[in-house]
Amino acid sequence: MDEYIDILDEQGNYTGKVLLKSEAHAKGLFHPTIHVWLYTADGKILLQKRSEKKDTFPGHWDVSVAGHVGAGEKPLVSAIRETREELGLHIPEKDLKKIGICKSLKKHGPHITDKEFHHIYISPLRVPVDQLKLQETEVDEIKLMDPEEFLKVLKSPSSPDLYVFQTADYYTLVFSELKKRTGKS
């Protein structure tokens, strides 16, 4: 779905420009996104398998929830909205903890260059996975995974075809914060 998004400069500052997401991707302009990592009391993380219909990373396993911040929208509001849309989960603001912002650059071909600043949140998953309602146009499947297993899988030769990759700094930030809350790495 195309939507209006704010355009950022190379440092992540708002420029005052607003474009359609498709235009920002075509021109390779920075814009804000959200990532929400949901975790269980026993330290597992929820992963989503992106829809095969997606323009970027179709059918790849990814963060629990990811999405673009709408024009004029605050990242926290976007995190709550995207979680509700993608998983049917109404997550209270108090459960979302922002742990940082990571810059990301990914080229997906001649017409899509993702230049994003990911606003990263973590939150406990307080409902059983089978109660989540997946947005068919965005998410094909979900699963719980142990973080250590997830990090091992990322090192496997077949991982680029199965998972969306982030930088080592990104994963260090996420998994160190999750370890503080669950005691599991």
TrEMBL record:
Q: Could you state one GO biological process linked to this protein?
A: isopentenyl diphosphate biosynthetic process
Question: What's in the GO CC field?
Answer: cytoplasm
What's one GO MF term for it?
Answer: isopentenyl-diphosphate delta-isomerase activity
Residues annotated as domain Nudix hydrolase: 29-168
SUPFAM superfamilies according to UniProt: Nudix
- Mind telling me which residue stretches traverse the membrane in this protein? none
Q: Which PANTHER family match?
A: ISOPENTENYL-DIPHOSPHATE DELTA-ISOMERASE, NUDIX HYDROLASE DOMAIN-CONTAINING PROTEIN
Q: What is this protein called?
A: NUDIX domain-containing protein
